[in-house]
């Protein structure tokens, strides 16, 4: 029976023509609502912390920052440069690092030198405004004792040293 049915030609002509209205549906409001739900706002500016005690060596600095808001952040952009009175020198060049955490240890710095730091937060929507700038200072390099100038007697000793630091050092501690 199936074989006989499939051999027949079937005419599928409709007896009445369908009456369809041509409707244009405005989905712009729904589209805006959906986009606002899925969109992530660009983050607010991070807050850079002042230099913490023991956060510096002669050649490195540990810089920390944070956010006041619950922004979604993918990474941070940490920028720094040496502080100098001279303009446009090679050592004045800005350096930029991409960091995942809210802290970073920067190495290969000059001893007893001031560095200016600022940070921005990044996510899929864009980059935040930069933080306020903070100045950090590396520790001075150890002085060199002038062995030929050491003098001593029964109750006293004279020890002389020199510093290779460009910037003045506040004080020295002498240990016996």
Automatic annotation (TrEMBL):
InterPro entries: E3_ligase_FN3/SPRY, FN3_dom, FN3_sf, Ig-like_fold
Gene name tied to this protein: Fsd2
All residue ranges annotated as the Fibronectin type-III domain in the record: 46-142
The protein's name: FSD2 protein
Pfam families associated with the record: fn3
Listed Gene3D superfamilies: Immunoglobulins (2.60.40.10)
């Amino acid at each position: 029976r199936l074989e006989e049915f499939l051999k027949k030609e079937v005419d599928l002509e409709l007896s009445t023509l369908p009456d369809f209205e041509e409707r244009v549906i405005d989905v712009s409001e729904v589209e805006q609502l959906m986009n606002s739900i899925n969109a992530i706002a660009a983050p607010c500016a991070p807050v850079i912390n002042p230099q913490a005690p023991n956060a510096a060596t002669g050649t490195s600095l540990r810089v920390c920052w944070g956010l006041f808001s619950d922004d979604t952040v993918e990474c941070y952009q940490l920028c720094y440069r040496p502080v100098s009175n001279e303009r446009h020198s090679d050592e004045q060049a800005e350096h930029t690092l991409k960091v995942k955490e809210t802290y970073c240890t920067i190495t290969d710095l000059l001893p007893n030198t001031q560095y200016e730091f600022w940070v921005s937060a990044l996510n899929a929507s864009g980059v935040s405004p930069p933080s306020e700038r903070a100045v950090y200072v590396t520790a001075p390099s150890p002085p060199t004792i002038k062995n030929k100038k050491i003098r001593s007697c029964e109750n006293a000793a004279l020890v002389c040293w020199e510093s290779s630091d460009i910037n003045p050092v506040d004080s020295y501690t002498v240990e016996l």
